[in-house]
Fold:
Amino acid sequence: MANFYVYILASKPDGVLYIGLTNDLERRLREHKGKVLKGFTKRYNVDTLVYFEEHDTYDEAFTRERRLKKWNRDWKIKLIEKQNPGWEDLAARWF
Structure:
């Protein structure tokens, strides 16, 4: 079982994107959706989980997060739409 997650949140389909890394995806999504933490996702209402991937080690996840953050927007959108063409909230069933 994976211990680390790289995830992408969106404000709406084709909206503002946020890429993050966590070792507890459900907890982290509760924080984003509850607007618990000040910052980018709260300011721009970015709380819809549209993509995530699992990694066995922190180093793998950290490297992947850094790479994704450097990608251009079109590449990120293609990555999301390959797995989630409807931009559904993948965390909806958790809450």
Remarks:
- The beta strands are 4-10, 17-22, 48-55.
- The mean pLDDT is 95.
